[in-house]
Amino acid sequence: MLSSELSSPQALAELTTRIKSWAQELGFSDCRIVAPELSQHREEYENWLAQGYQGEMDYLANHMPLRFDPAALHEGTQRLIVVSMPYLPENVATVKRLQSKDKAYIARYALGRDYHKVIRKRLTELGKRITNEVADHGYRAFVDSAPVLERHIAEQAGMGWVGKNTLLLTPKAGSWFLLGELFTNLPLPVDPPTKQRHCGSCQACIDKCPTDAFVGPWVLDARKCISYLTIEYNGSIPVELRSKMGNRIFGCDDCQLVCPWTKFANYSKEDDFQPRHNLDAADLVELMQWDETTFLERTAGSPIRRTGFINWQRNLAVALGNAPTSQAVIAVLQQTFAASQSELVKEHVIWALAQHGVTS
Questions:
Q1: Do residue 307 and residue 264 come from a single domain?
Q2: Is 144 an annotated catalytic residue?
Q3: Range of the domain at 329
Q4: Which residues are annotated as a binding site for [4Fe-4S] cluster?
Q5: Residue list for the binding site for cob(II)alamin
Q6: Reported pTM
Q7: Which residues bind cob(II)alamin (predicted)?
């Protein structure tokens, strides 16, 4: 039950204004309130799963009722406070780095500290500030860590629209930002939803995808997506896709880079999102020389840790196969083949050496 000081619509509106101000103080670029209705997305989602487009991400088929009823994730939830945070540092190269084939390209969200930790900490602080104001406040923070259809939720909150590349786009920030949600038991006034998706006839994201992973607008076949292949997938990367992956060793930003809306992106001022260990400009040869201990040390607190050392070497082998031929490239591939105990790594090293006309 609400305390007497929050029993009126005016009091709730005033609290909402303060919440949005606190969110800005905590580094969030936008904050919206929504009571989501997601049942209309269920058939489309189930059809996507039925096509097998999720690949080995079996968890995407779990907890189906919760995906379309977010309030069931946290008892008493009446609203979701949706926030966004820019993650692209201003001085980090993007297209230029993709064109430097001897350098590694890592998705720009993964260059610094793990965003789950950064955003969850700020969301929890926001929840505590609300609790200090409203004693009976119940809340729970989520950051890409539960069956939450966050892009559709953000669209319903009026934060932007789901683009043809399946990312959330906004007219003021493109798509270089991350999302988080604070579930709350307060019946706060909601923001109006986005009424129109402003992609128009543009389909640059579809046309420019290196591996043709888009079946059509708003439909991604993850099995061909470089982000899936380099992060989520644990097997042998299909041979026909390897040469198309270029120097991308962890994730892919191409469908953002070609989107016209990204020119309006806000750069991140967060220290936590600044590159660590020169990962925005590291040589492929240098990274392949890391042993597992070095990998674990230098990816501590980073999203890159998720891929694991074996897949890290697998991804690097593919990128080195696509790199300009040099003695250094051939030498590090041969050294990796000799040292690795992984048949998966060796398979990709053999392929990479063959691209340079060398047999293992």
A1: yes
A2: yes
A3: 204-355
A4: 199, 202, 205, 209, 225, 252, 255, 259
A5: 67, 144, 165, 168, 179, 227, 252-253
A6: 0.94
A7: 67, 144, 165, 168, 179, 227, 252-253
